[in-house]
């Protein structure tokens, strides 16, 4: 693994580590995915359920519009919807406006937050009546899908397909867990380990509305932190919503930058 940042590094140094490991030199994030350089961007492509999109770009005011057009043509030829994952410090400063002018739709802004695994609590227990069940097969994925559809709205089937493919082809890169109230799934989350980096990333973290505010989310963070520690990860990263950001801050996560998904429909 890389060891780019010293302990206690300020946030700008940690952001540089994140950019270098997770974006500039990103590897495919799952089965069927390919990462390729094209001009001044790094993109991932692949058939569904692979995430298609732009991971990194190094553009200028004079090159941005042509590069955006080139990527639109490329993904259109593939027939794929894709995401340009824009970060607040990306250049040029008006890149978001240029993407909107090219037909991209901005989704809600999120905060990129990072914590050192060694600084996070590991002994957070789920509230009374809740048990945490590892997800390892199709039945577990079905439970996760039920939770996410209830927490975020319909549309989690593709995430389930991708998770099943990871379990089969690269199980060491993914951990998933569902919180159960008896036999009822009420919360679920997953974590992905990124080979060649010091990072693991947290995803999902969805809890049914009537079960929020009871400490289940914190227990799911601790569960995944324990796995990250066992696998030698140094950092945990999450794209945090407004709802989860205060909880993550209290646990020790620090904000690095903002990110906005810009979606170009097929």
From TrEMBL:
The molecular function terms of the Gene Ontology recorded here are: acyltransferase activity, transferring groups other than amino-acyl groups
* CDD domains according to UniProt: NAT_SF
InterPro entries in UniProt: Acyl_CoA_acyltransferase, GNAT_dom
Origin superkingdom: Bacteria
The UniProt entry, under Pfam families, shows: Acetyltransf_1
The N-acetyltransferase domain sits at 130-266
Mind telling me which Gene3D superfamilies this protein's record contains?
3.40.630.30
Protein name as catalogued: N-acetyltransferase domain-containing protein
What organism, scientifically named, is this protein from? Streptomyces hundungensis
């Amino acid at each position: 693994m890389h060891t780019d940042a010293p302990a206690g590094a300020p946030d700008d140094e940690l952001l540089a580590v994140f950019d270098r490991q997770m974006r500039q030199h990103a590897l495919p994030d799952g089965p069927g995915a390919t990462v390729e350089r094209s001009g001044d961007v790094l993109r991932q492509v692949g058939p569904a359920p692979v995430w298609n999109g732009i991971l990194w770009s190094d553009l200028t005011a004079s090159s941005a519009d042509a590069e955006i057009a080139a990527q639109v043509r490329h993904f259109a030829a593939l027939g794929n919807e894709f995401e340009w994952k824009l970060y607040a410090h990306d250049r040029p400063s008006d890149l978001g406006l240029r993407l909107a002018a090219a037909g991209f739709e901005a989704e809600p802004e999120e905060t990129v937050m990072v914590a050192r695994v060694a600084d996070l609590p590991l002994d957070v227990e789920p509230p009374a009546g809740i048990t945490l069940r590892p997800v390892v097969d199709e039945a577990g994925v079905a439970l996760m899908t039920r939770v996410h559809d209830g927490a975020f709205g319909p549309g989690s089937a593709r995430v389930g397909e991708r998770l099943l493919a990871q379990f089969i082809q690269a199980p060491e890169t993914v951990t998933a867990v569902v919180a159960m109230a008896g036999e009822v799934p009420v919360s679920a989350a997953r974590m992905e380990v990124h080979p060649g980096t010091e990072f693991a990333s947290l995803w999902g973290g969805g809890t049914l509305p009537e079960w929020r505010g009871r400490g289940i989310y914190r227990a799911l963070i601790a569960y995944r932190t324990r796995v990250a520690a066992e696998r030698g990860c140094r950092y945990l990263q999450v794209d945090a919503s407004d709802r989860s950001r205060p909880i993550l801050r209290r646990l020790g996560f620090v904000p690095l930058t903002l990110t906005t998904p810009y979606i170009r429909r097929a």
